[in-house]
Amino acid sequence: MGIFKDRLIYIIGPGKFQTDLIEFFLYTQFGVKCIVNESIDRIESLDAVGIDPKTLLLLDISDKNINRQLNERKTEYNRIISNFMVALFNLSATGIENEALSRGIRGFFYVNDTLEHFAKGIQVLFNGELWVSRNLLSKYILENTNHHHSLRESLTKNGDHNLTKRELEIIALVSVGAKNDEIAKKLCISPHTVKTHLYNVFKKIKVKGRLQAALWAAKEL
Q1: What is the C-alpha separation between 158 and 137, in angstroms, rounded?
Q2: 53 pLDDT tier (thresholds 50, 70, 90)
Q3: Alpha-carbon distance 65 to 77, whole Å?
Q4: How many whole angstroms separate alpha carbon 123 and alpha carbon 152?
């Protein structure tokens, strides 16, 4: 308890009993302060100046059409997503994750998730990672990678990130879910060398882990 006592979570949802239970669980588990609201409109009225971008916003979408809301209230949601880490909870098998990821949503919690799974996801989000399944992320990357250019053509594009050809090869493999040992074998280098390259890649493209790097690759390669 207390590992995230200096952080803040907004919990947005109409079910007060459930949101109060989530607030109690997160406080007892992590010591984190939570603010519960029934509507995102209460958040929209906040002055963006001084908002900590590390603040997490959990948004209940159990009875909402998130795609419709993202389109109809694009300006409001873009403002929220740009100022907070936003994760959705109470998801069923809705198939909205791809669109949500493209809008900047950072994680997903489902109706059948256990408390242990929920707690792990909160820690991952606070550590700067995405809380997305590997299969879901792989699908997102495959659907959003520019298929009009071959990987070879993509690897020749250095862009503004100053990545070497070897670094681009490695991040391309990371984007399809390859592990360090698999990358090392594929490129005939040591796993230690792979780790060194990944450290340099993360620093250059300003991400904190493999999931964020994979999303970057989906847009840039």
Answers
A1: 24
A2: low
A3: 13
A4: 37
